């Protein structure tokens, strides 16, 4: 069966520090991968998606970046965090069999202070 | 730009009552998803609705899709406390160009009181 791992679960970082969140998927090949952010009191905002190794599409301009160095690995990064980067970050995958049904990781709660 | 609107955004109801959450979206789509999120947790898939008139039921929850009206509903029957959570609808604006993800509503925060 397929599983998705996301870490860390909680992260507290000072403004201006770098960020690296990692997500890996097991049990499937060539998944579509996504990073979403959920700010307090708001819905989910799609940040990046990837349909293959090295292929990254960005949905919103920001100081975050994403990379997909391996088929089942998706990394969210920042060189310098802003206060506004605080939120709940969710990695997700899909294979398109049921439309774009997404399966979510457990999430990372990021607090930038 | 695809927009997804849910209402209400907040709902407090008593156990045993029935209620409906509404999800409207702004573009043609025949793929709609409902998710549940418990506080501090990730999203759990509830329903996948892939055609006009689709109706799915799981326990006390029933979801339906009317693609002509661009409306989906999530109906709660005889609510119980365990259903307290935030419910999101999401729409797939897929147009054949690739897997570009889902657009989510802001969520309906549901509290069911004994």
Overall description:
With 113 residues, chain A is an all-beta fold. Chain A is 0% helix and 58% strand. Chain A is built from no helices and eleven strands. In chain A, the strands form two sheets. In chain A, strands 2, 4, 5, 6, 9, 10 and 11 form a seven-stranded mixed sheet that branches. In chain A, strands 1-3-8-7 form a four-stranded antiparallel sheet, with no helix packed on it. The model of chain A has no long low-confidence stretch (mean pLDDT 90). Chain B has 114 residues and is mainly beta. In chain B, 0% of the residues lie in helices and 54% in strands. Chain B contains no helices and eleven strands. In chain B, the strands form two sheets. In chain B, strands 2, 4, 5, 9, 10 and 11 form a six-stranded mixed sheet that branches. In chain B, strands 1-3-8-7-6 form a five-stranded antiparallel sheet, with no helix packed on it. Chain B has strands at residues 4-7, 10-14, 19-25, 32-37, 43-49, 55-58, 61-66, 71-76, 85-92, 102-104, 108-113. At the A-B interface, strand 4, strand 5 and strand 10 of A face strand 5, strand 9 and strand 10 of B.
Distance between the termini of chain A: 38 Å
Number of DSSP-assigned strands of chain A: 11
Treating each run of at least 4 consecutive H or I residues as one helix, how many helices of chain A? 0
Backbone CA Rg of chain B: 14 Å
Largest interface: A-B, 26 and 25 residues
Largest sheet of chain A: 7 strands, mixed
Residues in helix, % of chain B? under 10%
pLDDT under 50 segments of chain B (min length 5)?
Answer: none
Radius of gyration of chain A: 13 Å
Q: Outline the biggest β-sheet of chain B.
A: 6 strands, mixed
From the spread of the alpha carbons, the general shape of chain A counts as: globular
Helix/strand-derived category of chain B reads mainly beta
Portion of residues within helices of chain A: under 10%
For the residues shown, what is the average pLDDT of chain B?
Answer: 90
């Amino acid at each position: 069966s397929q599983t998705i791992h996301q870490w860390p679960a909680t992260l507290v970082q000072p403004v201006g520090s770098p960020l690296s969140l990692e997500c890996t998927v097991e049990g499937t090949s060539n998944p579509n991968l996504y990073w979403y952010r959920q700010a307090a009191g708001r819905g989910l905002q799609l940040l990046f998606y990837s349909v293959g190794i090295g292929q990254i599409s960005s949905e919103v301009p920001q100081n975050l970046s994403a990379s997909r160095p391996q088929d089942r690995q998706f990394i969210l990064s920042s060189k310098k965090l802003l206060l506004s980067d605080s939120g709940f970050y969710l990695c997700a995958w899909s294979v398109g069999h049921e439309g774009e049904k997404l399966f979510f990781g457990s999430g990372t709660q990021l607090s930038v202070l | 730009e695809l927009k997804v609107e849910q209402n209400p955004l907040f709902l407090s109801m008593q156990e045993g009552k029935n209620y409906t959450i509404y999800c409207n979206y702004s573009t043609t789509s025949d793929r709609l998803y409902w998710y549940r999120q418990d506080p501090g947790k990730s999203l759990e898939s509830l329903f996948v609705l892939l055609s006009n008139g689709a109706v799915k039921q799981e326990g006390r929850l029933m979801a339906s899709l009317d693609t002509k009206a661009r409306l989906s509903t999530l109906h709660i029957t005889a609510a119980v406390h365990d259903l307290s959570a935030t419910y999101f609808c999401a729409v797939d604006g897929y147009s054949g160009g690739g897997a570009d993800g889902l657009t989510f509503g802001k969520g309906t925060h549901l509290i069911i009181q004994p």
